[in-house]
From TrEMBL:
InterPro entries: Nucleotide-diphossugar_trans, Trfase_1_rSAM/seldom-assoc. It holds the Pfam family DUF2064. Gene3D superfamilies: Spore Coat Polysaccharide Biosynthesis Protein SpsA, Chain A. Residues 1-31 are annotated as: Disordered. This is DUF2064 domain-containing protein. It comes from the Bacteria.
Length: 242
C-alpha cells in the first residue's frame, strides 16, 4: 500500500526581466533501484505509546512529536536510497508522514524478535536490509555499503551496532527468520547475541558504523547535534525555546 503525500503548492512572485544566465547544473538523481529491499520497522507516533523513556522531561505529546520527526527523517533517507522495494513495517496506522513510494505492512504480533523475524520472512525473495526509526541521524552514505550493487558479494549479512548494545540495522542476503527468533531484545547484550547468531550460522558479516539510538533525553540532545539539519533537531530546538 502506498500512501500519497501532498506537498501542496508554492506561490512564486514575478521577477523583473533580467539578462539570461546559465542554468545551474542540478545534482545527479540517484538511481532509485538496487538489489536490496529496504524495511523500516516503526510505531505510529501516538502520545503515550512511543518514546516513553523521554517522559520526563518531555511530555507524552512532545515525545510523540520527536518520534514523528525521527520517523520522517528516516523515511526521507530511505526514499532517496537505491532499493528494490521500500517497505514500512508499521505498528499502528499510517499517516501523512509516509512518503510516496512506500508499501505499508502491519507488524506481526509477539515480542520484538518475533516481529523482526516476521518482517524478514515476508521478504524472503532477495537481499533485505532492515532499520528502525530511532536513528534520525542516519544518512544515505551510512546505508550505502549495504545497498551498493556489489553489497552482497562475499557477504551474507550486514550489521549496524548501536551504542546501547543493540543494533540499528540488520541486512540478510537470504532472509531467515530463525536467525532472529529467540534473541533477547532491548538488553545491553542484544547486539552481541544477534551478531554471534549470524556468525554461528556461518554467515560472512560486515559491519556498518555504530550509531546512537534515541531512547533518553540525553540521547536526543546528542543525536540532534549530530544531525543539525534534521526535522528531529528542529523539533527538539523548538521545545527548548518554548
Amino acid at each position: 500500500m502506498s500512501v500519497p503525500y501532498d506537498r501542496g503548492t508554492v506561490a512564486v512572485s514575478p521577477r523583473p526581466t533580467a539578462a539570461p544566465t546559465a542554468a545551474p547544473i542540478p545534482d545527479p538523481i540517484p538511481d532509485p533501484t538496487g538489489p536490496t529491499t529496504l524495511l523500516v520497522i516503526a510505531k505510529e507516533p501516538v502520545p503515550g505509546r512511543v518514546k516513553t523513556r523521554l517522559t520526563p522531561p518531555y511530555s507524552p505529546g512532545q515525545a510523540a512529536a520527536l518520534a514523528e520527526a525521527a520517523l520522517r527523517d528516516t523515511l526521507d533517507v530511505v526514499s532517496r536510497a537505491p532499493a528494490r522495494r521500500r517497505v514500512l513495517v508499521l505498528d499502528g496506522r499510517p499517516g501523512p508522514w509516509v512518503p510516496a513510494g512506500f508499501e505499508v505492512l502491519p507488524q506481526a504480533g509477539g515480542g520484538l524478535d518475533e516481529r523482526l523475524a516476521a518482517a524478514f520472512a515476508a521478504h524472503a525473495d532477495g537481499p533485505t536490509l532492515l532499520i528502525g526509526m530511532d536513528t534520525p541521524q542516519v544518512t544515505a552514505d551510512l546505508l550505502a555499503p549495504a545497498l551498493a550493487p556489489d553489497a552482497w558479494r562475499e557477504c551474507d549479512a550486514w550489521f549496524g551496532p548501536a551504542r546501547d548494545g543493540g543494533f540499528w540495522a540488520l541486512g540478510l542476503a537470504a532472509p531467515d527468520p530463525a536467525l532472529l527468533r529467540g534473541v533477547p531484545m532491548s538488553t545491553a547484550h542484544t547486539g552481541a547475541v544477534q551478531r554471534a547468531r549470524l556468525t554461528a550460522a556461518g554467515l560472512r558479516v560486515r559491519d556498518l558504523p555504530r550509531l546512537r539510538d534515541v531512547d533518553t533525553a540525553a540521547d536526543a540532545i546528542s543525536v540532534a547535534r549530530q544531525a543539525p539539519g534534521s526535522r528531529f533537531a528542529a523539533r527538539l530546538a523548538g521545545f527548548a525555546a518554548s
